[in-house]
Task: structure prediction
Amino acid sequence: MTTPTTARPPGGREPATRPTGRAAPRNGAPRGFLTVGSAVALPVRRISVVIALVTVALLLVAATATLTLGRLGVSLADLPAALTGGARGKDAFVLERLRGPRLVVGIGTGAAFGLSGALFQSVTRNPLGSPDVIGLGAGAGAGAAVVALLLPGTVPVWTGALAGAALAMALVYVSTGSGFRNPGRLVVAGIGVAAIATAIIQYVVYAVERDKAAVLTAYVNGSLAARSWDHATTIWLVLLVAAPLTALLARRLSIGEMGDEIAAGLGAEPRTTKTLAVLLSIVLSAGAVSVAGPISFVALTAPQIAKRLTRGSGPHLLLSALVGALLLVLADLCAQQLPLFENLPVGIYTMAIGGVYLGSLLLREWRKGVL
Amino acid sequence: MTTTTHDRPSGARTSRTGTARLAYSLVAGLAVLVLAMLASVMFGSRTTSFGDVLDALSGTADPYVTTVIESRYPRTALGLLAGVCLAVAGTLMQGVTRNPLADPGLLGINAGAAASVVAATAFLGASGTTDTMWWALPGALLAGLLVHAIGSAGASTSLVRLVLAGAVLSAVLMAFIQAVTLSRPKVFDSYRYWVVGALGGRDFDVFTAVLPFAAAGLLLALLLGPGLNTLALGDESATSLGANPALLRGGGLIAATLLSAAATAAVGPIAFVGLAVPHIVRALVGVDFRVQIVFSAVVGPALLLLADVVGRIVLRPQELMVGVVTAFIGAPALLLAVRRMRGNT
Result:
């Protein structure tokens, strides 16, 4: 299992039909497996490592900008000392209460959404098979809205969000009649379920008084404002549990992307793998939604960007998580610093950016005649 | 991948029995519409009887009851107008795009109207229905054109592409709307009452303000009916029959936009009426667009008014807005339609 053998088992069979130079490592670039014991074997290419490192560097830059920019920012010169425990007064407040937790929650949530989307898209072999499209966001919003209207104060809003998300996904799964496989049906069923959920949200926003309505609207869009260290602990615990399990699945998933028959022939038990991957994906999304609300489009775009960066096959789990974190931290930086609109929930920025990106992606796919 | 919207060949309709059947169907449809209008003035937080309505119409009813009933006239009139507009717009769009999933809501036209109204209210201080109407039009038209352009890029216009393009555009426009409304509490307040889609709480001024636009759209739709029939045969056949497909499409899109902008400006974005009514009408009367447009104008308002009455009854003494009711009726219908979709379309 751990030996760096063939990186692309069926590729050798008919090399002429493969898009050479894309799926296969270029110029015979060295490719091996990162092994942990005998259970984990992650395929690693040098180009992937470089891209991952660049993403981490960008993430660090974005994180520094988040902490230092603006009226309340800690000045760049003071930052190293402040981070190592020397912060006092205003800086301590900003780091410990305002932007510190917000940043840590943002990174964790973005990574969770990215990983969740990568798992889901790998299983469905469908670029649109993302938790956003299958009604997770809208369902979570509707659940939160119902809880806020009917049981204010008694039940935490995030439990409603989780229940709503689960219900919406189940509804989409049942109503397509073919699971999450067919992109066309998935999209239309997702739109139908989202329409019901949106109607519920709009009714609640109409029925409650204005200030509550504004708070609720911010929540259903997904917001990172006023997060505490409790939120950070929650999302990082979820990641800590889910990430190793995902790594265990990684190899089986990349075999699974070759098709059920090949996967079964290679002993990868496609059914079990898929069920586990979908469960993990839902746990990750649910964790992210419970701390930050249904932030849209991160789970959909992060794996797509990761795929385009490495130009390789496979689920790109780690890179999707990194790109997700980077996207969300950048969007939140916009939310905090752009002078145009003040204090908007970050979900509105991801919706705008993700919508434009998805539009351009679709245009390109259609020109090629895919979908 | 283009899917034609008709399911059986025309021709049977032209026989004498067919015409008689159409006449009966039309009378039955009108009867349902009248009943729906009656129900709309009878039911509410204080229910009145049929006798009360007759008394109120002849001016002999108790003044209190008369006030109650008269207070329901504007919403009934608005329901009538919006129902006609949405249903005919849906029929036109499904005919022009030859796509059974075409609907002003799904294709982003309502979002376009909403975005431009919100922008005008927030930045230019527009207010009142006439202003709103004029601002809803360019947004709706632009969104319609954009979705059509994105959806028909590449080789062929597929059924899902247009819907997907509509969803993408709606997402971007929603982000803009939310950004503007959340940063301006006053705009947010009026927006949340408008976006839910309600017939109540509006008066006759709204009706008279949007009437000219609705009438223009309807007239255009009726003029286009015969042309749309040839378009359903395919572009080549339409050209050989002397029609101009590009002109027909453009005209149809403009009429549909006028109608849906009028409905959206009057009562807010209401989804699914434009999607569902054409399907019901096609099942009833077949594929002739001239007939379809007339029947849509009868079935649409009947459906919308009945949905409004249901919304007033289920949560009494509070009420559920008609936009919420239509979503709850229409979305399951869409989900059922998904199960019947074939292949990867």
Notes: Chain B is about 75% helix and 0% strand.
